[in-house]
Write a structure and sequence with these properties.
3 domains, alpha+beta, 386 residues, seven-stranded mixed sheet, Butyryl-CoA Dehydrogenase, subunit A, domain 2, globular
Amino acid sequence: MTFDFTEDQRDFAAMLRSFFDAQYGPDRLREVVDHGKTYDPTFWRTMVDDLDLVGLTVAEAHGGSGGSTVDLCILLEEYGRALVTSPLFATAGLALPALTEAGDEDSRSRWLPRIASGATTATWAVLGSTGAPDLTGTGVQATQGAAGWTLSGSRSWVLDGATADVLLTVAGTPAGPGLFLVETATADGLTRTATDALDPTLALAEVAFTDTPAQRISGDHAPDGLRRALALGTIALAALQLGCLSGALDMAVSYAGTRVQFGRPIGSFQAVKHRCADVFIDTETTRWVVFHAAALASDPETGADALEEAAHLTSAYAASSSFRAVANLLQVLGGIGYTWEHPGHLYFKRATAAARLLGSSTHHLDAVSAVIDAAPSAAPGWGASA
C-alpha cells in the first residue's frame, strides 16, 4: 500500500506543533515535573475546550470529530514531542479504543460523549502482573450477584490509574472475558496507589479491586473487539514514542549547532554529525513504520491478524529506535544531559518507560514470531510498503 498525509492532516500537524511550542514550553513542563504534579489542569482544559482533542477519533454521532487513527497518531507525535503530561493518552489512546471496539451500544451511547467532551477522564487497566497485556481476565475476576457485577483482583502499572474518573479493565467471567467499567468516585472496595515511576511525565498506579461494583459494558464479540482495541492502543503508544524521537532530534541538532568547543560549534565535528544523523534516520524510519500501521488501522478492510501483526512490529521497532535516539541525544549533550535542570534526561526516561507500557519488546516480537510460525508463507501484512 502507499500512504501520504492529506493537506488537512499536514495543516493539523503544523497547528499542533505551533500550539504545543507556544503553550507547553520548558517552563510549563518543569512546573509539573519539579513539583510532582500529575498534570496541569489549566492546560488540560485548554486542550479540551479550545482544541477539542480528546474526542478526535470518536464518531460524530457520539460527540466526537470522527477522525481516523492516522489523525490520532499525528496528534500523539506532537504531544509526545512536547513531553506533555495529561490524561490525553490514557483517555484517547487507551480507554476510547477499548470502549469503542469492545463496548456495547448502550455503553458507547452513555460514555463516549462524556469522555469525548473531556468532562470525564478514563484509562484502560490492561497490564497483568507479568507486565504483559491481559485480555483473558486472569488477574481480575467478575462475579454477578443480585445487585450486579463486582470485581476482585488487581492491575499493575495503570497509566493515570490514581486520577482517572473511569477505569476500564478486562475481567474473567464464567462465559469468558468481558470488559468492565468502574466509576472511581463512587466505587467501594477500590484501592488506587500511585507508584514511583522512572518517567515523571507518566503517572502510574497499582489498582486493586475488592468486591468492587462494576458495569459490564462489553457485547457478544468482546474478545475480537478487545484484540482490535489493544492493537489500536499499541499503535497509539508507538506514535507517542515517535514524538519522543522527534523531540530528541530537535534537541540534538539545536544543541550541536549552538554549543561551542575549541572555537567552533560541536556540530561541525564528524563524530557529533554521525550521532545527529543516526537520530534523524531512526526518527524518519519510525515515522513511516508508525503511520503505515496507522493507515492499516484506518482501513476497514484490514483484517484482525494483519492489524495485530502491524501493531506488534511497530511497537517493537518504536521501542528500540527511541532508545537508540535518546542514547545518542545524551552523547551529543554530554554531561549537561544528565542533570535534572536540563530536559534531555526526560526524553531518555520517556523512551525507557513507554517501551514497557503495553508489554516489552520481547512480548511483541514473540507475538510476531507466533504469527510467522503459524503461517510462514502467508503471514498477514508482509509485503506492504509505506
